[in-house]
Amino acid sequence: xxxxxxxxxxxxxxxxxxxxxxxYGILDIPNHRSSxxxxxxxxxxxxxxxxxxxxxxxxxxxxxxxxLGLTMLAVISFLDDILTLKASLRFFxxxxxxxxxxxxxxxxxxxxxxxxxxxxxxxxLNAFNFMDGINGITGVYSIVVLLVFLxxxxxxxxxxxxxxxxxxxxxxxxxxxxxxxKKALFxxxxxxxxxMAFILLxxxxxxxxxxxxxxxxxxxxxxxxDTLLTILKRIYLKEKISEPHRHHIYQKLVDVFKWSHMKxxxxxxxxxxxxxxxxxNMMDAAYNTQLLVLLFLLTIMVVIYVSVNAIAKNRFSV
Length: 318
Description:
By secondary structure, this protein is mainly alpha-helical. It is built from twelve helices and two strands, in the order H-E-E-H-H-H-H-H-H-H-H-H-H-H. The chain has one domain (3-317). The longest helix is centred in the last third of the chain and has 31 residues, at 287-317. The termini are far apart. 42% of the residues are buried.
């Protein structure tokens, strides 16, 4: 199955999904905390999962534990988009899917660190979902990270079949046609953001399996800093983490600075691309040097987060 066939197939499936969503009312209804004001189709990110269905079939069922976990997450997340399921059920499925993936990939680390990684992986899935709050941001950010992994996979040491990445890229580009615009035609939904997060988690773990380096964390520096610092801020403000909020930097840029969704998405993608290129250029350096570069990047992200919050607070007070 060549790339043209995959592209045409996913385009057709995207149109089919639009018709199904309209017929059965799979819609996102805006509220006072939403970044959009019109009713929009939800769940368009199912294309990310469908891209991996194509890969799974074409590759004679390669990486089946990954696909099993992805399928579990896609199904439960899509149901949550439609029905709003209990958090405990979603967490259980996430725990099971990540556990299957960790059992499958030979990371050769102690059980204690595996347990920490399990918690961190589940947190990553939900963090990626939390960041999907404005048009274009999930698509642009995913394209950047996928391109980085594809570049490393081709030019450095191969850690995964290229089609896993390229098919995902095709699906994100098609998704972007519907989502990267002032008035989106559909949103990714939980099925999209969680599925993409799991794909990126799989690529990260395979990267670690081959390179034995945690520098892949730098490939998510922008999202990671925004999410972690926002959580710390909410804890400081004594807010419930599970409740909706407007503390993310991308929300500040839209609400306070009045930037367009597309501009914010491009800025996030550009920052992440610059960070990733710095990491890539240091990959042949000593491991301690890599860690110092990673620490430097995270420090820069902290400075940006604090600065934007301070300026936004001053503007709001005025």
